[in-house]
Amino acid sequence: MSEQAGTSDTGSLRERDGLHQVPLGAFERRAVLIGGDIVVVFLVTTMSLRLGALRSGWEWSTEFLLEHATWYVLLAALWVALAWANGLYDLRRAPDRWHAAVLSAKVGAQVLLVWAIAYFVPPPWTLVRHVVVFFSAGMVVAIPLWRQAYAAVISRDAFRRHVLLVGAGLAGRTMLDTLRSAAPHDFEVKGFVDDDPVLAGTEVDGVPVVADRSDLLQAARELGVSELVLCITAGAHGDLLGALLEAREQGIDVVPMPVLYESITGQVPVEHVGDHWAVALPLARPAAGGLYPLAQRGVDIAFGLGGLLVLAVLMVVVGPAIKLTSPGPVFYRQRRVGRGGREFTLLKLRTMVEDAEPDGPVWAEPDDPRVTAAGRLLRRTRLDELPQAVNVLRGDMSLVGPRPERPEFVAELADQIPYYRARHAVRPGLTGWATVNQGYASSTEGALLKLQRDLYYIKHQSLLLDAYILLRTLATVVRFGGR
């Protein structure tokens, strides 16, 4: 429960009842996960060095550990980076030890792969093989145990955020479903507040309607809630606003539904924005100001030049493979919509049969029969996107951003989906927040979900978020996870 107002009635109630609650937000929970992982890395590294010393006859001493101290830092940084890229810090699945075991095995294998590559960079500078094997195996065992301990502690009532949902309509029910599915260990919904007399004393989706606006503050005090989530997106009554202000004075946080939904899911719920329209639009992006545009463009140019070099080498094999598996050109050109709604020609390696759309543009489907044998492999590794290095160098695209859409679909989607054109506020990207979390849209419903994530990226654009997206993309490429 929030301790923002220690002298308030809410604070006094908590003290009288002997409640000592410290509700943790997403940042704090993720910090605990990462901090715990680093501790585990240090312990497992020590164990691995000890086993390595026993196996190889090394003298085990303080001097020996100091000599290898750099590896504690390197392995911790490598583990956290790969774990983040593989979704091991997804708070929705963090307490699941079996999920952690699977992902830990993947990350452990990737650590071995990085070691194998680094070992052949002259002069050899990595740890000896058996120490790295001990480390990877130890992490596969230790991380699930740490996650089990994390779940046992972090799921306790003292660390959960107790909330009331103000409004039992569609937005309120959507928020309830989101809290249950995306943050079941983080929140406890104590009830709904709604003025509809028909709902008084009833339950909505298994949650009781505990009060109307006149009893809101009293219910919040009695139930010991730390937050009120405003799920009324239009036409809030003046008395309700007064009750919310009074609750805020008493130290209870008040948050609009779209804001909480966005922080939990990484999506902007455009269909529930209502009067909170500013939530959906990237009106101010402090993190994307300053030197960010220069740094972003520098990375784009470096990638564009490197991408062209890699493409030139790959074309020796890829070009003939495309020609042999399907007649037609090696490269494919398609009109797309970029920043400011301007159209440009996007370049790709051809992955479909020639004349794949005789009746006009259609959505691509999973396991699309139009995809050629060579095209399937190119898509899985995302090498078909490599010619877009030319688009990046031209300035049509950036390395990270919303994926550009075709003009025919843009016109249709802009009529059906609110705020759709807001995604044209930035350069489209080779990869993006929607791409790593969802993949490619194949319907209007998929385009809506994609837009929600694109708007989140535009609002929170930063070098750190770009780096995370690139790590996730690299992990997808390594495991052949493309569409």
Give descriptors for this structure.
483 residues; two-stranded antiparallel sheet; six-stranded mixed beta sheet; 3 domains; 10 strands; flat; alpha/beta; Rossmann fold; 17 helices; 52% helix
Number of strands: 10
Compute the number of structural domains.
Answer: 3
| SSE sequence, one letter per element | HHHHHHEHEEEHEHEHHEEHHEHEHHH
Sheet/helix structural class: alpha/beta
Task: Break the fold down into its secondary structure elements and pairings.
Layout: H1 9-16, H2 26-56, H3 62-67, H4 69-85, H5 97-119, H6 129-154, E1 161-166, H7 170-182, E2 187-193, E3 203-204, E4 207-211, H8 216-223, E5 227-230, H9 238-249, E6 253-256, H10 257-265, H11 292-325, E7 331-337, E8 343-349, H12 373-381, H13 389-394, E9 398-400, H14 407-416, E10 429-431, H15 433-437, H16 444-460, H17 463-478
Parallel strand pairs: 1-2, 1-5, 2-4, 5-6, 9-10
Antiparallel strand pairs: 3-4, 7-8
What do these coordinates show?
The chain is an alpha/beta fold and 483 residues long. The chain has 3 domains: 9-17 and 160-279, Rossmann fold, CATH 3.40.50.720; 26-154, no CATH class; 288-478, no CATH class. The protein has 17 helices and 10 strands. It has helices at residues 9-16, 26-56, 62-67, 69-85, 97-119, 129-154, 170-182, 216-223, 238-249, 257-265, 292-325, 373-381, 389-394, 407-416, 433-437, 444-460, 463-478; strands at 161-166, 187-193, 203-204, 207-211, 227-230, 253-256, 331-337, 343-349, 398-400, 429-431. It has a 6-stranded mixed sheet with strand order 3-4-2-1-5-6, with helices on both faces. Strands 7-8 form a two-stranded antiparallel ribbon. A hairpin with a 5-residue loop joins strand 7 (331-337) and strand 8. Helix 5 packs antiparallel against helix 6.
